Amino acid sequence: MTKSAAPRQAAKVVQLRKGTTLEMVRLCCPDPAQATLISESFGLPVLDGDGIRDLHRRLIVETADSLGEGLGERAMQIHLQRIVGAYVGSAHGAGQFYSRAVTEARDATAKAANDTRDEDLDGPVGFDSAAQRKREFAADMALQSHALMMAAEGAIAAYEHVVGEAWKPFERPVENPGQSVDRKAAELQMAALG
């Protein structure tokens, strides 16, 4: 006796668009020791990273407390998920920008060390060289990205305090994976043409 096998439906695989994690932020932003070294090397203010983290933690916890009566537990979790995601995304963007600024500063400094290149020599007396300006810009971006990373850490700590579980980035399902915007546009245009 043979049984006819019912045709199996292929399981739909849903691809997820990965969110930005705190680990990704930490990879591209300077840590507290490096931020302090940069501040001291460039004569910039030394940031109070712990203070920034604690202030943002308190700010978000107090905001959640004030919203407590108006939002249910799930609504509060969704609201804080979005807020923390914005902090983490901002810090990640600043960290990536800082990384590019460091690369440009390194390239300019390496070019300036080559004695046969006239265009990279120091400017007139009283003006910094292009390489020096790029190094100073990278140092400024280092402090900005570090400050935003500390704010993101505070926001994540607040989320855990209020919600009671560790924050994870929201992973959005990709709408039609493998289909580009151009392809969608072409299909819509062809459909309109009849």
Automatic annotation (TrEMBL):
Organism domain of life: Bacteria
Protein name as annotated: ArgG
Lineage: Bacteria, Pseudomonadati, Pseudomonadota, Alphaproteobacteria, Hyphomicrobiales
